[in-house]
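Protein entry
_____________
===
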Amino acid sequence: MKPSALRTIHREHAALSAMLRSLLPLLERYRRRGTLPDFGALRAMLFYLDEYPEQRHHRQESELLFPKVRARSPLARELIDQLDEDHRRSERSVRDLEHALLGFEMLGESRRLAFEQAAKRYVDAYLAHMALEEQQLLPLASRVLTPEDWLEIDEAFEANQDPLTGHAPEAEFQAIFTRIVNLLPAPLGLGEAI
């Protein structure tokens, strides 16, 4: 039987990928229309990225999954080092992106291009990171980890409850996730098609 953590990771990656892939066309749509974006909704998306994938998903990978794979497959050291470095850079990158959004919101059109370029770099790097995990790390983990290894990993990832994967958000996050879902196009969200 496939470990539940693998299913959770795949679901979280799919939801995150859908959100990230909608961000750039959404920004392009605002540009084409000559309108400013819904800054509050964009802030909510970036807050989600920082709060869930960066602080929860990545932490569980770096503190539980990666060390177990490293212990069972020393040849994977370079791959895991790269993924851990991606996590460290990504945490800083989302904050830089939040700052670029704030600059766009406060200073207007003069900062639109800088934010759009920062968003593209962030999305491209994040999608490449997830592809590396999906194509190399997770298949390796499936081969080398024991059922005992998976017990702790499964428990941690089951506790994640990422709202973009269908779980009810914690009460304090309800308004934020409603705003994100209303902005994003179907099937992830309810917003208008891009």
Remarks:
- The chain has one domain: 4-162.
